[in-house]
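Hey, I was hoping to borrow your eyes for a little while. There's a protein on my desk that I can't quite get my head around. The fold is given in discrete form, as structure tokens running alongside the sequence. I'd be grateful if you could look everything over and explain what you see. Here's the protein in full, and shout if anything looks odd to you:
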Amino acid sequence: MIEVTNLHKRFGKFVALHDVSLSIERGSVTGIIGPNGSGKSTLIKCLLGLVNPTSGTITINGSVLDGACDYRQSIGYVPQIARFPQDLTGNEIIDIVKGLRKEPASLERELVERFDLRHELAKRTRALSGGTRQKLSMVLAGMYDPELLILDEPTAGLDPVSNIRLKQFIGDHRNQKRTVLITTHIMSDLEEMADEVVIIIDGRIRFAGPIRELKVQTGELRLEVAVARLLEREAA
């Protein structure tokens, strides 16, 4: 599904990613975690085609990223902070996105119902809470049933009910053999949602594999503590 090979990204003298190689299987849910400034965001931006790597290759669904944009049709992306034109309603934003695509938004109604947005979409986005804007962002990212879903801190601002529904949606996505990448600092959420975890420190991958394997390596039962142990070892 996703193959990253010898990826290197430099911003001037600063090296954000050092020789990153990574393989993510179709139908998996993978958490990408690390300290602030570790390179997580740069890796995500490279996958989205928003940042061009200095060297190395990225292959998604068999297509090598070479500057073309067609592959993005198969990706849904939820940014950490959902920003929309404040004078537009949720319905208008959905219609704009639908106007850019030829195929039908097969999951639009299902997601609007799932996240209880029917009575919110007629409002201008400036009147929406942060959590409601986050749910609108989820609808936009998921309504075309993307092969790859990338979620950046997806539970931020969500109420408990919406949080549960998000986790159910991610589980449904995985059951349909779709791939999900999640960045988050909330390890308890990740432990519920993810199969595997990638830990990036100083632009290098320090661990990539099943969560259970990380727990075995560190001798810890909880993901949060296991990650902390790995970070402590790397800092020593």
Q: What stands out?
A: The beta strands are 2-11, 14-24, 29-33, 55-60, 63-64, 75-78, 148-152, 179-183, 196-201, 204-210. The chain is about 35% helix and 25% strand. The helical segments are 40-48, 90-99, 108-114, 130-142, 160-175, 187-193, 211-218, 223-235. The chain has a mean pLDDT of 92.
